[in-house]
Amino acid sequence: MYKKIDKEIIKKLERVVGERLICDPKKMYDYMGDEFADPSLKKTPEVVVQPKNTKEIADVLKLANEENIPVTPRGGGTGLCGGCVPLYGGIVLSLEKMNRVLEIDRNNMLAVVEAGVTLSDFYAEVEKAGLFFPPHPGEEGAQFGGLVSTNASGARAVKYGGIRNYIKGLEVVLPQGEAVTMGGKYMKSSTGYSLLNLIIGSEGTLGVITKAIISLLPKSPVVYTLIVPYDSLDDAITAVPEIRKKVLPLAVEFIESDVIPPTEDLLNKTWPCKGNAYLMIIVDGTSEEEVLGISEAIANICIKHNVRSLDDIAFADTKEKQQNILDIRSNIYSALKRGTIEILDITVPPARIVEYMAKVHEISAKYDTWLPTYGHAADGNVHTHLMKVGTKDGKLDEKETNGWEDKYPPARRELHEEAKKLGGIVSGEHGIGLSKMEYLPVFVESTQIELMKGIKKLFDPNNILNPGKIFCMGFNIS
Ligand SMILES: Cc1cc2nc3c(=O)[nH]c(=O)nc-3n(C[C@H](O)[C@H](O)[C@H](O)COP(=O)(O)OP(=O)(O)OC[C@H]3O[C@@H](n4cnc5c(N)ncnc54)[C@H](O)[C@@H]3O)c2cc1C
Predict the structure, then answer these.
(1) Coil/strand/helix, residue 426
(2) Which of 229, 370, 412, 477 has fewest C-beta within 10 Å?
(3) 227 CA to middle of ligand 1, Å?
């Protein structure tokens, strides 16, 4: 059993973090869980600490390890699978006070940040320096510690890859309280096992990330966004491999039209064209001519795939128009959240999205349940919402669908079974956390899971760091 936090422990924690500590449960609402829609995936911690440097984090972990108290690292709380839920109470270790961009190193095209820096603050600093950080996970309140821990990705991964491709170094505090530096300001390393890459995607179970060294790129001066409307989703998706054979866009998203009106409503903004399904394609380049040429090549492919004419395609060539589109795309989750039970993160081989989407529609009809879907078309990463409501006149129905509690488990299971048959995986970018744990053994063979458990045991022999996430180690490791 883990030790309960008593007054003695609170006093010891106060000696480390001073007043940056919350132990009134009424003030802990924001630390109970993440953006996962189902409130049953929330838990009140016994205490929240907000350290402001690596030494304080090391001291908190040392104490927790000695006293056998669970610690849940927490970033922006924007995760979608319950990763930062303090399942066994204990300490929530929030990185919010470690929010400084420490350095923009223009000569090496690198940035050094504390783990609590948010994406939005980071983009602003990078923009000021005239540089570019390609990954764009949809929620800019996410912090670097969380982004690295989930190996987040987002729409722009098609051309530039996800967070993993940009992390060159990490400072990590291990569960016993020792701070170590993995990687550094260099671009290559063939120097033993890559512990750096092991920490990326480890969901706060192996160590607490305190700093990150991030590589940056030169900024592409010209960016266009195209919205291509289709009568059928199949036409939209079958165009994608052809586009990719010709050009490599920054992003290729697919969107079923039923998610647009609730999002327009939420933001009071207007999507630029009308269809049953859309491709949102972002292209970048060094000159207007280059980007126009790429856009034209894409438009011609889309026309072959049943877009009626060039006039149907919306070209967003200004920052304002592009931001309007990006805002709508990024807020689909928020617009649907009220009726969402869970958002899935299934990823199939890109050329099999059409088959997977046919199954989504079949399962939706079979259970008479709304399964709005959109995603990263060129990556095969498909986000289906399992809903407890339908739509009515472009809005979320106020009434919950009859029997959604009975429909949700089999519909969810069948969607995962179909993904598995198509050679897919349970999570492309959100992580396993708490909500997807039951599917890890379905998609990953037991030998690999045993290796993962062995690694966890080596890093965290007392199982104090984010216990009960990714896989079950038993309550405490024996
Ligand atoms: C509207 C919306 C859109 C989204 N779009 C995308 C998208 O396009 N692509 C995508 O990949 N994700 C997306 N997400 C999911 C989410 O933003 C990412 O998972 C993000 O990486 C979580 O970061 P966070 O700081 O909020 O982490 P949290 O939710 O606080 O935590 C996530 C995990 O990281 C661990 N953790 C946090 N900080 C640390 C640390 N310093 N050290 C060790 N472990 C730590 C936590 O314990 C937990 O396991 C979206 C979410 C929302 C709400």
Answers:
(1) coil
(2) 477
(3) 28
Given CATH 3.30.43.10, say whether it is the number of domain 7-95.
yes
Q: How far from 226 is each of 243, 308, 320, CA to CA, in Å?
A: 13, 15, 14
CA of 64 to the centre of ligand 1 (A): 24
Architecture per CATH, 333-421: 2-Layer Sandwich (3.30)
Answer whether residue 476 shows pLDDT above 50: no
Cβ(418)–Cβ(403) under 8 Å?
no
Q: Residue 239: exposed, middle, or buried by beta-carbon count in 10 A (0-12, 13-18, 19+)?
A: buried
Q: What is the pLDDT of residues 230-265, one digit of tens each?
A: 999 999 999 999 998 899 999 999 999 999 999 999
The mean pLDDT of 31-43, rounded to a whole number, is: 92
Mean pLDDT of 110-125: 98
The whole-number pLDDT of residue 473 equals 77
Centre of ligand 1 from the C-alpha of residue 34, in Å: 8
CB 411 within 8 A of CB 426: no
Ligand 1 binding pocket, CB closer than 6 Å: 34-35, 72-80, 83-84, 95, 115, 137-139, 142-143, 145-147, 149-150, 152-154, 203-204, 208-209, 333-334, 429-430, 433, 466, 469
Q: Residue 313: pLDDT band by 50, 70, 90 thresholds?
A: very high
The CATH label, of 3.40.630.30, 3.30.465.10, 3.30.160.670, 3.40.50.1970, for the domain at 101-218 is 3.30.465.10
Percent of all residues in the chain with a pLDDT value above 70, rounded to a whole number: 99
Distance from residue 6's CA to the centre of ligand 1 (Å): 30
Among 3.40.50.920, 3.40.50.10330, 3.30.70.2190, 3.40.50.2300, name the CATH number for the domain at 222-330: 3.30.70.2190
